[in-house]
Amino acid sequence: MSYLALARKYRPQTFSEVLSQDFITSTLQNAITLGRVSHAYLFTGPRGVGKTSTARIFAKALNCLSPDGASPCGECENCVSITNGTSLDVIEIDGASNRGVEEIRSLREAVKFVPVKSKYKVIIVDEVHMLTEQAFNALLKTLEEPPEYVIFIFATTDQHKIPVTILSRCQRYEFKKISYSQMLENLENILKIENISYEKDALNYIIRNSDGCMRDGLSLLDQVIAYSGGNIKIEDTLYLLGITDNYLSNDLFSAILKEDVKSLPDIISQIDEKGIDYKYMTECLIEHTRNMLFITFAEKSPRSDITEQEREYYNNLQPYGDKGRLYSLFQILQKLINDLKYSDFARYVFEFAVFKSASLSSIIPLLDKENTVKAAPVIKTENKSIVKEEVKSEVKSSEENIYENIKPAENIKEKEEVKQKEESISTPDENGIWVRVMNMVSAKDMMLYGFLQHAKIVKDTSDHLIIKFPSDRQFQYKNIKNGRLRDSFEHIVGNITGKDTKIDVEIEKDSEYEKKNEIVENESSKPKQQEQKQTVKKNQIATYASHKLKEEYKDDKFIQASMKELGAEIINVEKK
Ligand SMILES: [Zn+2]
Q1: Which H helix or E strand runs over 198?
Q2: What is the pLDDT of residue 546?
Q3: Which range of residues forms the domain containing residue 359?
Q4: Cα(216) to centroid of ligand 1, in Å?
């Protein structure tokens, strides 16, 4: 006896053998029992999930000579000839290769003859969406007034390509992908019958590569059996599936998470030597990231067909996979996929992204608490005098800081820069979110960073952020308040706080300038707010006096005329 492929050998022959489509099979059976059979059916859904098999079983059930209720016996003359594809009353045509108007015309002719040995003439058209427009039109005629004994069953993977006129004349049934558990059960049953031993993880890989399509699953199983000779092992399966290079993406991902930068060049060379597509490798890394996120935070298996090996792999990596890192990693990889599409230097683009991924803790500079103050942004007063503010907010920072676990940067250059700026810095509360926001902004959006340098923090809790620009920073204020930098700013703040933080961007009015300075003058006797302490240096008061003078001279008629004539403005007034 010649060898019969598993997909054919184990093709479902009764309604109960059709997997995962219970709703459809029971509806069809009811239709037969109740005598309410429609003359046209449309079966839609992905390939290999049982559409054609169900059509054949339905044809058998309709024409069976000794049915058991609505189930075909499988043994009578009609059942056997339909199973063997020799029935004269069940015509099966493939829409892909018989798509022209001529074929449909001959089909119409065939329909005119009454069935030879059965009750119904069943026409099964597979891949019906492939028919041409004229063919559909020709078909429509028959569908409108079919002879009583004719039943059409159309099957398609793409119902959107079928004209509405056809759709509206059919009863539609949507087939689902076959679930993991049913697929596994079916494969295990078949292997038992075939008396073949197997490793369960091998089946997991087969199911994963079948994507809910039983036919694919069985074809793969066939190949693996042929290769491994009656004892299915993981290695053989991986080899046949062409995923022996799995370990490379595993090694790469763990090197990235562990920030083991030294081993990267070697792994990348291996990827290059084996000619593995960088885009494919990036996709693998994205999948690893996703799986890691599921296992670590949802405490849920990322997929039902996960293998024991994989579970162990992810469990070992858990200590390295904090949320902030995984989110950032996902962003980098997603961008990498895009970059690879347009770059002529795939390897370099890939390398840079991978190195960046493996250096996240130094790219997203973070504070340890001692360094908090140094990384704060620069805020200059209008007259460039030096003000040191110490703001002590009672509000504690959100515990949800996603970057908390990433170590601070050790970027020397940056530290030097910070040192230089230190003198003119006013420092926000180290428990607030501002410093973290600025650190992330500096890594992501230099323009926004430049703009925010002029802002002063009024409030920086994770619930509410208020920043204020000096009156001469209209441009920066407008761009961040509702201009094009708003989105980027909101996004970064959201990333830091992990929630929808309210953001207010304000600007000082000119009159506020005076008020502020008056407060500064009276500081020692009357603090502005209890939680704010301000230390004012002597030269501040001197500058304030000069400001007063400037205001006086503004009203001077001679000076006003000169200003108008020359387009000048008063910059400074000094007392002699
Ligand atoms: Zn029968």
Answers
A1: strand 197-198
A2: 54
A3: 246-363
A4: 29
